[in-house]
Amino acid sequence: PTPEKAKLKDPQNRLYWHANIRRLNAEDIRDSVLFISGELDSKLGGPSVKGSEPRRSIYTIMKRNVQDPVLGAFDLPGGIKSVAQRDVTTTANQALMMINGDWFLKRANALARTLRAKTFTNDREMIAFLHQMTYGKKAEPAEIDLLSSFLSTQEKRIEAKADNNQQTFIGQITQNCEESIKLGKGSTLTTLSVPFSKSLPEQDFTIEASIQLESIYENAAVNTIASQWTGNTKHQGWSLGVTSQKSAYKPRNLILQLVGNNSSGQLTYEVVPSNYHLELHKPYYVAVSVKISETGESGIQFYVKELFSEKPLQSVFVKHKVVSDYRPENALAFGGRDKTSGSRWNGLIDNVRLSRSALSQKELLIHQSAKTPASVIGFWQFNNQSGLLKNSVANALHITPPVETSLGPSDARQQALADLCHVLLNSNQFLYLD
């Protein structure tokens, strides 16, 4: 039966009416989901846009040889010839795209963010609103009970999974009761990163860390401790790491890689070796202090100490060629490099400290009694007490939460809500009517 005209004034009722008298075409499905998620840009007119933009489908660019994956899955005509009547199919690919497809997952997350921006007195009120948004009709009490149960159960499941995942990237440096971050093999994490900031060093700097390397590569790849670099020798950057089996500088050599301008103003890549060769499965304190404009003997100083040992702190001065312009606009990465999957660390990292000056030996972190220098801009301790991903010396330069895992109750809640939105989008009957 045709709904009353008054009901058609509400977009939700209009959508539900259309859904019950005919199958929605590809464009209707895309626009309806964007409308429900709160993303649809409904302004009229303007140039064509990519399918990734949240505009109505009538404004998206159509290419005959490159079809939009969402529209194509739901029987969009090819555009090569006129079509009097559209095909009507219900295929496994459509269901798989809705369940696992990146576009639908993003819409579910957007809908969850829309809900979090609104104010509700309790979960039941929020679920009733969500049901009305996605189904276009009022929820029955039993339906609210079912969806409330799903939301609660899913949140607990995600929290439990996060706790379990956290145990796979929390380790301990030998003989040390403090927590450290575990990267590489046997961990859910590979690389951690701090978004680029202009507060990161551009002149002198010191990078310090406690490390334990579990394995090296069979080729010449570097096992990166910390870097602000992509690994491209034509791009500015720096990287502190340990060499691998086939390195020209011999295996397990602590090195600093620099890319910047030399004294002639030419872009230069150089490897500055310490010639300290670290053993596997042993904990070390390592540091490098850089006076970038000083190319003499005192330009770069490496420090190495085997932790929990009576052996003294060792240090060595090394010359270098790069004198300026080494800072790129890349993230500061721990255990790897920005925008690349190679040269990753396999082992433990803890107590990473970065300073905007070349620290003297007495200012180093290894001297527990030393006062924290004013030039220290970042100290990442990787324990739950100080905040697993927090910079403990400033309210900035925090590590971006990894996508591999959720790290807190609010993350679990948001993901559970996104999962609920995803369920409702996928179970909505208007997408399946013939």
Blueprint (SSEs and pairs):
Blueprint lengths: L10 H11 L4 H12 L31 H5 L18 H9 L1 H15 L6 H13 L5 H29 E3 L6 E5 L8 E3 L10 E9 L9 E6 L8 E6 L10 E9 L5 E11 L5 E8 L9 E7 L7 E5 L13 E3 L12 E9 L20 E5 L28 H19 L7
Antiparallel strand pairs: 1-2, 2-13, 3-12, 4-9, 4-13, 5-6, 5-12, 6-7, 7-8, 9-10, 10-11, 13-14
Helix pairs in contact: 2-5, 4-5, 5-8, 6-7, 7-8
Structure description:
This protein is of the alpha+beta class. The chain has helices at residues 11-21, 26-37, 69-73, 92-100, 102-116, 123-135, 141-169, 409-427; strands spanning 170-172, 179-183, 192-194, 205-213, 223-228, 237-242, 253-261, 267-277, 283-290, 300-306, 314-318, 332-334, 347-355, 376-380. The strands form 2 sheets. Strands 1, 2, 4, 9, 10, 11, 13 and 14 form an 8-stranded antiparallel sheet that branches. A 6-stranded antiparallel sheet has the order 3-12-5-6-7-8, with no helix packed on it. Helix 5 crosses helix 8, helix 6 (123-135) crosses helix 7 and helix 7 (141-169) packs across helix 8 (409-427). It starts with 10 loop residues before the first helix and ends in a 7-residue tail after the last helix. Residues 1-9, 14-22 and 404-408 have low confidence and may be disordered.
